Amino acid sequence: MSETTPKTDSAKVIPVKNVKIHRPEGSKQEQYKPRDQIYVRKVSGYFQRFRRKMNFFFLFMFAAIPWINFNGQQAVLFDITEQRFNLWGLTLWPQDLTLLAWLFILSAFLLFFVTTFLGRVWCGYLCPQTVWTFIFMWFEEKIEGTANQRKKLDQQKLSASKFKKKALKHFCWLFFSILTAITFVGFFTPMRDLFIDFFTFEASFMSAASIWFFAFCTYGNAGWMREIMCLHMCPYARFQSAMFDKDTLTVSYDYNRGETRGARGRKQDHKAMGLGDCIDCNLCVQVCPTGIDIRNGLQYECINCGACVDACTGVMERMNYPQGLIRYTTEHELKGKKVHFVRAKLIGYATLLVIMTSLLGYEIMNRVPVSMDIIRDRNELARENFNGEIENVYTLKILNKSQKDNTYRLSVQGIENAKWIGENEVHVKAASVYTLPISIAVDPYELTSYMTDITFVVELVEKDSDVRLTHDSRFFKKR
């Protein structure tokens, strides 16, 4: 080890130390220790029961929604090939992607609000990576046994019993991954046809490839990578602490109450022994899905799942100590200060959420369920017909954005006595485009300039309907 001092004109000099790692000659010690496998111990308690109920509810919703029909079609379908998104009674097209952008922005601010108030509960209770990891761990426990039994099984040499357990576990993982992938792809492809086609080997190459790709990702992420996704690949783990403040609820260890740690008998007076409430049983570490020790303070690896809270609560009950040594609390509370649940940051996020929700609702309520594109004849802007009138040819593309068949009436404004040549009432099927070639003929004496602004009007032919759309275009005079 050597010490050097860089030359500087500053009054303060910071010494720079070059540290070299010396190894015994011939040492085979690895420079970087490989990842140790985490054998998560099962724990029960209030927060784990609550988490399982939430996981079951949202897993059920994930599996059921693609099978639900609404107005004769799949209720939720993001059909990329048809460029059409069905959300129950709402059909979105590429022209409506601003609505999806609003929805994503709203979801982001909702996540910011929840994180500021409750910490990283998204990761512990709702994140698909966490949910599927716990499901895979459930298969693991049912087939291979408890955490200690799994650890002993992995240390054993390969035998028929071990091979059987491992094969059954990986079969269950893979089968559940395939079901997950089919369900996920079913949000983008009609689910009923996809499910039958996949198991009868009649699915298209793209659908089958997508299913196997997402099945492989599910199998790898929830079965093998697990906490690696949370610790090293998820960007939320890196920036979520920026939204924390001293009044954010997080899973925390009460250092002042727990220290000094140490083993003791249930009937011993630990205070007389100079010990805190923590008996140093390490259960909080054994039940943690990311393998951290919450007693080391707030760490970005903590996903706020509450497993350590339930484990410690059980220990406190057995020791007849007050609960809450590890609990959901705030930094201010741990320091004995007043907690401000209603604060400026939360009010700001809540205000933005209300404003954006209102704007999104207003845009959806005032959305016109029809659109029209106008394509001019590119070969000839204007021509003279047999009656001496000036004709312009247009192709109208009328898109019915609603989920029912509609009849629309078409007209043109902007030029007196303009003649509409072609259909002026069209029947358009739900969520489809109707292509209509038409001509507009005008007496040349009605035209005062080479180019005249006109407006095409589309109206829904339905009693008491106020659906009306206008689209500007131009009418050219023959030179």
UniProtKB/TrEMBL annotation:
Keyword Ribonucleoprotein belongs to the record: no
Transmembrane residue ranges: 56-77, 97-118, 171-188, 194-219, 346-365
UniProt key word Electron transport: yes
Organism encoding this protein: Thalassotalea algicola
Gene3D superfamilies for the chain: Alpha-helical ferredoxin, Immunoglobulins
Signal peptide segment: none
This protein's name: Cytochrome c oxidase accessory protein CcoG
Keywords on record: 4Fe-4S, Electron transport, Iron, Iron-sulfur, Membrane, Metal-binding, Transmembrane, Transmembrane helix, Transport
